[in-house]
Amino acid sequence: MSIAVIACGALAAHVHEIADRRNLDLHVEPVNPLLHNRPEGIAPEVEKLILELQPIHDQVAIAYADCGTYGAIDQLCDKYQVSRLSGDHCYDVFATAEKMKAEFEAEPGTYVFTDYLVKTFRRSVMVEMGLEKYPELRDDYFHSYKRVLWLSQRQTPELEAAAQDAAQLIGLPLEIMHVGDAHLEEQLLALIGSKVE
User: Strand, coil or helix: what is 24?
Assistant: First the structure.
């Protein structure tokens, strides 16, 4: 049984780790995570990969939440009879939608980091949003936020230092919630489980 997983580049390393841990033979095809800055580009890229992978694999699964596509990934799932991870964004994938709802209700001005964003913050946010060249834009972009919540998958001293640095760059206090990748693993297995048991 040949299974391909089209994964957001921010999740692809985690999908590989889960596959290794579970001894799953998965072909993981990452999609450029910088598309989150322009989410209208996500569904066309996912569709291109579905069309490439379906003829050569028995099953194709989508390791994306909705991710700002406003249902465009769901339309692809219906069209090509594939399934995706549940949730509105990768925060739901790691922490569960219920926990994220509670966090956003507790502090509506919450900016969220995952390990991926911690590692790539300068490139993904500072460069992509023009803050390297125009640091004065920081207050325009982040004035409504009150805190950064890091949903840590692996809380190492290096990542914690990078998270502190990123939070300081945007002038917000950092809070840390360790979530691991168990919820992602559960969802991934649900996507492909009937085919790998």
Answer: coil
The pLDDT profile of the chain, 197 residues, written as one tens digit per residue, is 899 999 999 999 999 999 999 999 999 999 999 998 899 999 999 999 999 999 999 999 999 999 999 999 999 999 999 999 999 999 999 999 999 999 999 999 999 999 999 999 999 999 999 999 999 999 999 999 999 999 999 999 999 999 999 999 999 999 999 999 999 999 999 999 844 44
Q: Which residues contact 188 (CB under 8 A, 6 or more apart)?
A: 5, 15, 18, 61, 63, 85
For helices 42-53 and 72-80, the axis angle rounded to 10 degrees is 20
Q: Which of 177, 179, 148 is nearest to 165 (CA)?
A: 148
For residue 110, how many other CB atoms are within 10 A of its CB? 18
CA-wise closest residue to 162 among 110, 108, 109, 126:
126
Residues present in the chain in total:
197
Report helix, strand or coil for 178. strand
| Run of H or E residues at 7 | strand 3-8
- List the domains of the chain with CATH numbers: 3-88+181-196 (3.40.50), 92-178 (no CATH)
What is the distance between the alpha carbons of residues 59 and 175, in angstroms, rounded to a whole number?
39
